[in-house]
Amino acid sequence: MRAALAADRDHWRRRGCGPAAFRRGYHAIWLYRLSRYAHERGWRMAAWLLWLVNGWWTGADIPPSSRIAGGLFLPQPYGTVIAGAVGRDAAFGIQASIGGLLKEPDQDIGGGPGLPVLGDDVMLEAGAIVLGAVHVGDRARIGPRTITLKSVEADEEVMPQPWRPLPGRNVAP
């Protein structure tokens, strides 16, 4: 846990965001790490209470069953949901989320039943969502407001579809 917190602080320092201890995103990571520690020791009530405090204080929903390696960068935790496995030095934008789908709840690729796995150095822009048992490769980037339901290769960049007019919508009343 100490090594992961040191990696988290180091990632914040590399990004030039000042002291991590004053940032609510770092508080979310710190509370998650405490909750995960309690979860691994079998202290389910303590883990659950820390998860609730984390949601109340930071606005982030990071269950203790998630597995997050060191170096997570979470500058704006409000509305962020992280349910699955996340590799080293990942970065989440505001309201970026990963989670499961009810479509294939039994499929487990390493993040948990029906949950995604993110590789190392993955970046999720603001509002990006990764759903289901998908694997996002190392150094991949998921663009803003992109919903990803399929696996993403390493070093790949996924962006949302361009806007297009809908037929019959440009008629004046």
Automatic annotation (TrEMBL):
GO terms for molecular function: serine O-acetyltransferase activity. It catalyses: L-serine + acetyl-CoA = O-acetyl-L-serine + CoA. It is an enzyme of class 2 (transferase). GO terms for cellular component: cytoplasm. One of its GO terms (biological process) is cysteine biosynthetic process from serine. Belongs to the transferase hexapeptide repeat family. This is Serine acetyltransferase. It comes from Methylobacterium oryzae CBMB20.
